[in-house]
Amino acid sequence: MSNTEPAEFDRDIAVRRTDDRTYAAELAPGWVVGGGVNGGYLLAVIANALRAHLPSHPDPIVLSAFYASASVPGPAEVRIETKRDKGSLAIATAELWQGEDLRITTTATYADLDGLHAKSSGFERVTATEPELPPLEECLSSTTAPEEVKEFVPMLDRYELCVPKDQFVWGGAAPTGEAVFTGWFRHRDREPDPLSLLQVLDALPPVTFGLELPGWAPTLELTCHIRHKPAPGWLKVTHASRNLSGGMFEEDCEIWDSAGRLVAQARQLARLPRA
Amino acid sequence: MSNTEPAEFDRDIAVRRTDDRTYAAELAPGWVVGGGVNGGYLLAVIANALRAHLPSHPDPIVLSAFYASASVPGPAEVRIETKRDKGSLAIATAELWQGEDLRITTTATYADLDGLHAKSSGFERVTATEPELPPLEECLSSTTAPEEVKEFVPMLDRYELCVPKDQFVWGGAAPTGEAVFTGWFRHRDREPDPLSLLQVLDALPPVTFGLELPGWAPTLELTCHIRHKPAPGWLKVTHASRNLSGGMFEEDCEIWDSAGRLVAQARQLARLPRA
């Protein structure tokens, strides 16, 4: 591939301004998961439109998304309203539409991450611990998933996810009995950045797969925090839930970069699969 | 107090419909904290307007709030747009305005909690652990805070917060060195319910108080999950942060009810106080 050709991910999240608050996108069929398009990919499309709309604030800092209906591959529109644009932070809402159907409504705070960090006091205190994973060569790669799984989840061809053998759900591993899912992750032809982290925050199978609850776990809301620009290389990603109750569960996601830094966090509220 | 007189909290969050999508409120001076009005109280005002607007969906399930500017006591307006109202869930946005100033922009999913629970499979798996607190009689109560503290934080008179002695920041306890804050909580004259939990999720001092960072820690975004209707009685509330870095920190809040159930969770992204 030549250096001038954009990566697949960048082609797939491209947007085109059509009026002073609207951006056209083409949702790529490669990001389909079962009956819909991956929610994390959709956030990256929306975030790309927000970035174009807020030129002095290039980075998503926090983004909250409410999922109204399942998206399908094809044309879509991102409609933006700036709510605040003052000083070092901008707040805007962005809705993803397909025809007459609202797919996702989001609100986000954008800023220049480097600028925010330069202005900070330098105080650091991270007690979260990096996930322990077997070396890459001992993990099983999503690229080896059976063809019938890839047909149902074409998204598996967009990246490589390498997981401990007992979590290899694509290969038919038995449920671990834990509400945890962890793995190494990288996009096929692109280094991570704040926009791609939004996709990664909702890329892994839900933790309910580990609990013999393999059905669809629809997300009600997902909030993403982008804390640092990630170093190049493989990412470590974890999903975990501590409160599966009353038909719903919270799922926390962390992304650690190759420098051992916690670069992004997400929490979602999802519905438990029906028994 | 007679049974027909509403509790202080209910009077303070009251709203009055002024047109087909707007509700008038009066932000009560009793909820002031330093230079602004408590963010959790403001969420309860907004949530009360949303409840009035979505009569078949009485309970907030998830609510995300972005804080645009500090509120002041006095008149305010909640402007609502319903985004989806189909089946058992409704999604709406609600903005809090004072004059020309946007204070908070929120999005929420509402439902009937009892109905959602009745339709669930009954699957339960809670690995989160209830906070260990000394008995109430061994804790120190916010009601004994010095007068000069109460003058700066009039909100302290709206509820009782009883904390272990080493966390008694109002009495001048030394920082604990931990990014944790825990206590017993109850509103002065009212049992908890889903609306009041929204206030409780942002009522405690920030965890940065434990780290010799006593300044203002402005919230960028706060997401609340209301998972169960709380049992009557005292609540246990915890705040904790695991990732203070790059000028920001995440703060997770949990509320446990008197029946020992994790009834609500929140996560916020806030800016670290300037050194």
Descriptive terms for the model:
275 residues, mainly beta, Porin, 14-stranded antiparallel beta sheet, 5 helices, globular
Question: What topology does this entry show?
Answer:
The structure is a homodimer of 275-residue chains.
Chain A (H helix, E strand, L loop, with lengths): L7 H5 L2 E5 L2 E6 L4 E2 L2 E2 L1 H15 L5 E9 L6 E13 L2 E10 L2 E11 L1 H7 L5 E2 L13 E2 L5 H6 L6 E5 L16 E8 L6 H7 L18 E8 L8 E6 L2 E3 L2 E9 L5 E10 L4
Antiparallel strand pairs in A: 1-2, 2-6, 3-4, 5-8, 5-13, 6-7, 7-8, 10-11, 11-12, 12-14, 13-17, 14-16, 15-16, 16-17
Helix pairs in contact in A: 2-5
InterPro entries (chains A, B): ACOT8-like_C (IPR049450), Acyl-CoA_hotdog (IPR042171), HotDog_dom_sf (IPR029069), Sec_Metab_Biosynth-Assoc (IPR052389), TesB_ACOT8-like_N (IPR049449)
Protein name (chains A, B): Thioesterase family protein
Pfam family, one (chains A, B): 4HBT_3
Helix and strand composition category of chain A: mainly beta
Multimer state? homodimer
The overall number of domains of chain A is 1
The tally of helices of chain A reads 5
Which chain pair has the greatest contact? A-B, 54 and 54 residues
- In one word, what is the shape of chain A? globular
Main sheet record of chain A: 14 strands, antiparallel
**Helix content percent band of chain A:** 10-25%
CA-atom Rg of chain A in angstroms? 18 Å
CATH third-level topology of chain A: Porin
Topology, number of strands of chain A: 17
Low-pLDDT residue spans of chain A: none
Would you tell me the overall average pLDDT of chain A? 95
Which architecture name of chain A does CATH use?
Beta Barrel
Distance N to C terminus of chain A = 47 Å
Task: Output the CATH homologous superfamily of chain A.
Answer: Acyl-CoA thioesterase, double hotdog domain
CATH class of chain A: Mainly Beta
Note the beta-strand portion of chain A.
Answer: 35-45%
Elements of chain A, N to C (H/E): HEEEEHEEEEHEEHEEHEEEEE
Domain Acyl-CoA thioesterase-like C-terminal (chains A, B): 142-270
Organism (chains A, B): Nocardioides turkmenicus
Pfam families (chains A, B): 4HBT_3 (PF13622), 4HBT_3C (PF20789)
Domain Acyl-CoA thioesterase-like N-terminal HotDog (chains A, B): 28-110
